[in-house]
Design a protein that fits this description.
The termini are far apart. The strands form 2 sheets. The protein has a 6-stranded antiparallel sheet. Strands 7-10-9-8-11-12 form a 6-stranded mixed sheet. Helix 3 packs antiparallel against helix 8. Helices cover about 30% and strands about 25% of the residues.
């Protein structure tokens, strides 16, 4: 009965969205109705529980989908961004630009299933724009990527798994740097004041720089670390895979 009530509430909200064009109605995976204001901001439909439920939104955001197939990420601070205009379109990215062997590795090495459709929609397409600043250990701006295999590691100084991954990243960087493979650390701007300390303590050897929240959203980084791998033609071949699969994907791209 409760689920039926929630459904009808959601349906009523959806119908009313046609009358009030400033609103977008969406539904979270657990069935909660949310209202997105086109001028910015969002809230749960039931105002009596909105404040409490907003407190429970994870740091990486909450996914919500409209009946039309639009996918949104709702942020804890009340902001939102559109990550996919149609669920159906995310089923196929750009298959002719995808390496079949890499695709098999991605399917095996992608454990964050909640974000699979979003990341899948990015594959085989030109890598999103990425501007980094405050480079250390050299610089590798995006305009120099063509003809190289580029591994972008989105990480944060406050992220324990990120710091733990640095020795492995160093090893891969040293192993493949003479084969046209580039490693880049894109450090979250939150906590970047400790970046020099972390680099010194960890012995991080590959180029790293600070990334703004704007580009974190463009690349759909929902968790840290996030690995993104771009091929020699500038197409995104992998994103969000488990760290253990980074080297096999590099090897598959080198064979191409």
């Amino acid at each position: 009965m409760r689920n039926m009530c929630i459904f009808f509430i959601y349906l009523i909200c959806f119908m009313s969205s046609f009358a009030f064009s400033q609103d977008i109605v969406a539904k979270t995976r657990d069935g909660r109705a949310v209202i997105l204001r086109k001028k910015g901001g969002w809230f749960f439909y039931d105002p009596s529980i909105d404040s409490k439920q907003r407190e429970d939104v994870p740091e990486q955001g909450l996914m919500a989908t409209t009946l039309g197939g639009q996918v949104f990420i709702l942020r804890k601070d009340g902001t939102w961004n559109l990550v996919s205009s149609s669920v159906e379109r995310t089923q196929s990215s750009n298959p002719e630009q995808l390496n079949p062997k890499v695709m098999q590795l991605i399917k095996s090495g992608y454990s964050n299933t909640e974000y699979w459709e979003i990341h899948k929609s990015m594959l085989g397409k030109k890598a999103p724009e990425l501007e980094l600043f405050n480079w250390m250990n050299g610089s590798v701006p995006q305009e120099t990527w063509m003809g190289k295999i580029v591994v972008v590691v989105f990480w944060a100084t406050w992220c324990s798994p990120c710091r733990a991954s640095i020795p492995r990243n160093n090893t891969l960087f040293q192993k493949y740097k003479d084969q046209g493979v580039v490693f880049i650390g894109a450090c979250c701007s939150r906590g970047q004041e400790k970046i020099m300390e972390v680099i010194k303590q960890s012995g991080l050897k590959y180029p790293t720089a600070t990334v703004s929240d704007f580009y974190v959203k463009i690349w759909n980084v929902f968790y840290w670390p996030t690995y993104a791998i771009v091929d020699r033609a500038g197409n995104l071949q992998a994103i969000g895979v488990d760290p253990d699969y980074v080297e096999p994907i590099i090897q598959a791209l080198l064979e191409k």
